[in-house]
Amino acid sequence: MAGARFGLIGPATAALGRLVGRYSRAVIKPDRADIILEAKLPSGPTLWICWHEANFIALALHAVVTGRQGMAFVPPGLNGVGMRGWLEELGITPVPLAADARRGLGLRQMEAALGDGKDVLIAVDGPNGPRHKVSPGAMWLARSSGAEIKPFGASASPAFRLPRWDRLIVPLPGARVCVVIGEALASNRKDLAAEIPATLDRLMRRARLTTHQGIE
């Protein structure tokens, strides 16, 4: 059982994660989602990147937008137990982010997923921030994969933000949701480290304008 090594709190955390997944499917409706494409959707497995605050919307809409299976990393500990339940509820394959991921494990897992036709979804400032700062691990994966990198931003209205480091956007029932998908970023660009945050910030602003959210 997921989270069994944490005693009673483990299964409870996994169940909470599944409830989060069910809530996201209930409030994020395809017929109330605006999908803005600044370039055509990729035809093959893709590395999708966003800020952590857009995770709730991105995970719920990935399969709707792409029609493909996805994979996402989950952190160690109880946070990972809850995230696993959330992802599994949405049909996304959870992969534990092990301590030695930068030494090759994460790359091998990602390559296997891409080879199986799955997309990989990464919140580049996760799993613990700082907010809007691309983590070294995410940058390493982006440069090493060789896959097409697709950035996106998301917003919703009405919505609230969780009072934590990422200020996660959580749509409320009846919300209008917007996802803006940008042009692909080349993994071999020398300025990739600067281009990723600038691009994600711009896509988030466009999504907020579309939903009239106006939150920073």
* Structural shape: globular
Percent range of helical residues: 25-40%
The chain-level mean pLDDT equals: 87
**Distinct helical segment count:** 6
What does this entry look like structurally?
By secondary structure, this protein is of the alpha/beta class. 39% of the residues lie in helices and 24% in strands. It has six helices and seven strands. The protein has helices at residues 9-27, 55-66, 77-89, 105-115, 136-145, 192-211, and strands at 33-37, 46-50, 70-74, 93-96, 119-123, 148-161, 169-181. The chain has a seven-stranded mixed β-sheet, sandwiched between helices. The longest helix has 20 residues, at 192-211. It is globular and about 50 Å long. It starts with 8 loop residues before the first helix and ends in a 5-residue tail after the last helix. The model has no long low-confidence stretch (mean pLDDT 87).
Question: Key terms for this structure?
Answer:
216 residues, alpha/beta, 7-stranded mixed sheet, 24% strand, 39% helix, globular
Helices and strands in order:
Blueprint lengths: L8 H19 L5 E5 L8 E5 L4 H12 L3 E5 L2 H13 L3 E4 L8 H11 L3 E5 L12 H10 L2 E14 L7 E13 L10 H20 L5
Parallel strand pairs: 1-7, 2-5, 2-6, 3-4, 3-5
Antiparallel strand pairs: 6-7
Summarize the structure.
With 216 residues, the chain is of the alpha/beta class.
